[in-house]
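Exercise 3.2. Students should predict the tertiary structure of the chain below and write it as structure tokens, then compare their answer with the key that follows.

Predict this chain's 3D structure.
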Amino acid sequence: MGITPGSAEQRFPGFDVLGQAHTWDRVTSGVVLSRLGPVQPVEFFSFEEEPTARALVDRLLGQDDDPKIPVLEMIDRRLVERQGDGYRYEDMPEDWEAWRRSVAGLDADARATYGQPFWDVTATVQMQIIEAVRKLEGDWHGMPAARVFSLWLRYTCSAFYSHPWAFNEIGYGGPAYPRGYKNLGLNRRENWEVAERDATDPVPWAERTKDARRRHTGALAGGFSGEDTDESTTHDVGRPTSRGSEAPEDDDRA
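Answer key:
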């Protein structure tokens, strides 16, 4: 059985994407499997910045339980190597500068209200601070808040879903080239694919998303109780029941 992040029951029991690695081309296989190698130490973020950056990433992805995908280390490597997305908004600094400034901003906000750095407040308070950035219209510490939140999500989700453990979680067989797919169509699977444990879920995805929002808002209200008080959320994109978030619409790239 393949490893999946966190302690939740596996959606695709028995599936292990590594069993498909022999079908990938050599270069692709090397890139994907390298993500399972020894985790490199953090270099971009300083000793003071690392715990805040790590707490931010964990809250955005809902990585509260082991095993955890080393998302911060993956982001850190991109920033060290200056691997951006190929574009930059005209009202934003370079990604590496924006990351450093936004981590400092989280610490500043936490200290201003709670007298402690961001990493040292509770997970509930961390979520409240992140949610305030998400909902803010205008600038936050000299940068557009919506752009900052989008930056966080782009890097965290890209890193998370490029890891084989995340492939296992969503039943993804890895790169299609050169093998490809032949059984196209609704409810048709390749012979190596595994049926989803809850594939006949009667609850529409829209309702599952609303439930995720209710649980998230319950956490913002003071605990992970899931009480229905609001529809806003930081954890409702990509993994509707536990991880991710809605990214703002961006349409004026420089």
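Discussion points: The chain is about 40% helix and 0% strand. Residues 95-114 form the longest helix (20 residues).
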